[in-house]
Fold this sequence. Notes:
This protein is α/β, with parallel strands linked by helices. The chain is built from nine helices and eleven strands. α1 packs across α2, α1 (6-18) crosses α3 and α2 (21-28) crosses α3.
Amino acid sequence: MHPLDIDLLRTFVAIADTRTLGRAAGRIGRTQAAVSMQVKKLEALLNQPLLHRTGRGVALTLQGERLLGHARTILRHHDAALADLSGAGLSGTLRFGCPDDYAAAFLPHILRSFAGRHPLVLVEVVCAPTPRLLEQIGRHALDLALVSTADGAGTAAPLRREPLVWVGNRHDDAAARVPLQLALSDPDTLDHRAACDSLAAAGRAYRVAYASGSMSGLLAVVRSGQAVAVLTQSAVPADLQILATGEHLPPLPAVGLAVAFGLPHPPALVAEFAEHLHRIVPTL
């Protein structure tokens, strides 16, 4: 048995997180060809197939899934040992805010990859709509937060842009109801305002049947087939469908995703986490 190479395991975990060789290559700073060669080397080392290609990227084989758990554990202990013995790793507690609609899609990757680099840092997470996060930023209850911004607003380019989409139950025709029944986030959020503004401009009758900052409650209403919602495209659960614009539903704008800070000159730990967000969020 040959020893497992840390670099090979790190590449493999990046592929498992991103599900494409190209995005994994961007995350670890290698070419796609180099990543492909590393996968072949790891498979030859273990004499097991670890990946198979799909129409949307790559998926882990059964052996790959088994390796993934071991790889994460090995890398976590390896990085923690280096940080502890060298004294070079950051430590401390960070208070981070994230909008509810991005939590499921983005948070696991953000936190896992940052912990791999800085295992001694404790990240406390608050999930809430952007207006509530900005309120906490304003009173310094958070060190930094990802926040949604109106497309084109602000001087700095956002980390990424996300289209807003209409979302409904796969087995219901809620979009054709008159008036249109809506399940929306808080009235001061971008998705709520975009839905109402676009429907008003199109002359489409609507009624806000459910408005709340609770994402789980909002999705429950949509799953019941009683209303449609507006979400960022990345936040759409697999069991719901994106509804086409056209006869019943007008087009919606896009929103940006930016970083807001609690202090004008953030400390080193906060600055490092912000830099991490700038590296990883565009690849998710």
